[in-house]
Amino acid sequence: MGNFNSDYGLLDSLNTSFLDSRITSSSLKYENQYDSLLLKLDYNIFFQRLNGLHSSSIFEGVIYFTRTKIDGSMMMLSSNKYNYGLSYNLNKRSLSHDDVKNFNWNVFDLFIQNKKSKYSIGLNTFKDGNDLIFSGRSNFQLGLISSKINYERSYKPYHIAYADSLNFEQNDCIWIENSLQMKKFNIGFDFAFQNFEREIDHMDLPKKGNNLWISLYLSPVFQNDLEFSIRYNRSISNEYINDGIGDRMKIQLGNKFNLFSNAMTLKYHVSIDGYMNRKNGYALTPIERYPVHQPEQASLENLWVPSFTVTSFVKNVEISYAMHHLTNIIDDYLNRSYDSNQIVFNKYYPSVTRLASLAIKWNFYN
Q1: Cα–Cα distance for residue pair 14/1, rounded to 1 Å
Q2: What is the C-alpha separation between 193 and 191, in angstroms, rounded?
Q3: 65, 94 Cβ separation under 8 angstroms
Q4: What's the predicted TM-score (pTM) here?
Q5: How far apart are CA 251 and CA 273, in angstroms?
Q6: Which residues share a beta bridge with 181?
């Protein structure tokens, strides 16, 4: 169970624009085995009270969002290579304002799997009909090359804020992950293609589109605990709802060492993230969080964001401290203006400044 609260002002023509969000999320899991029958049950519920004021908002005043999902599966454990089973999940979501919207749908599928592969086929069912869904994944090993192939057809409901009835968009995706592990280098190449189609044109969003994603990864292998990696991602979109970032690059350097007679392990990472070939594509509205098209398509400046993370491990306790956008700290030290290092990903929000976060994780073992 978790509780997440946020309250802040927003950029808008209305001087009093704000957002007050209160989220409660809980999850319950059950798993048991009876002879060769394995049963799993997951119960998840999300509740949000949302109060905000913004010129882009569809609603005024307090809104209540509820999302419930129950996953159940039954699998026969076989002595041969494959296990068989079926799964069923029940979905419900609602929005309460002046009126109440309640949408329900179910997903049922049959699957077969082993240690390296899993294939499934089923139906996405709702009040007015059903749609065929399927998915598959397989792992392959050819010498030093490891490959993972995944494909999926799924149906996702439209955003409940602007949809007056339960409508789905079809999503088809195939992604392939490849890695080559050698003595001195690890090289990765990933490829993904996504295609979506929808029948109804809501909020001037495209009815169909696709996106090609290519990723390259390089990591030298050092004898000590030194870590270094470079990752480059390229996104090519055609009428696809995205953040407008064409190229991404991440360079990371890290190491770890022990202190106090090995009682504490300290691990750090220094990284820089690059966002290049940017355009104003789509943005999420700050209240209901649905995508809207930004008409201006002018190219934006490239962004480079340095970050630092240090994590300590003492027995079962993990303490992590992270600082993002270190450029602002350098500007403070040199008494320079922030204007040269503005980071704006969404026109509804102010520019991103430095962010510091502290996390403490305590693991309890039997």
Answers
A1: 36
A2: 7
A3: yes
A4: 0.80
A5: 7
A6: 186
- For residue 190, the Cα-to-chain-centroid distance in whole angstroms is 17
| Residue 273 near residue 247, CB atoms below 8 Å | no
Helices of type H across the chain? 327-333
The answer to whether the Cα torsion of 285, 291, 296, 302 is positive or negative is positive
pLDDT of res. 181 = 86
Q: 156 Cβ partners below 8 Å, 6+ apart? A: 168, 169, 171
**Distant-in-sequence, close-in-space partners of 330: CB < 8 Å, separation ≥ 6:** 336
Amino acid letter for position 137: R
Question: How many angstroms separate the CA atoms of 159 and 172, rounded?
Answer: 19
3-class DSSP assignment, residue 251? strand
Residue 223, pLDDT above cutoff 80: no
Q: Which amino acid is at 265?
A: T
Cα angle for residues 111, 113, 114 (degrees, 5° grid) = 170
CA 165 vs CA 73, 92, 93, 124, 162: distances in Å:
29, 13, 12, 16, 9
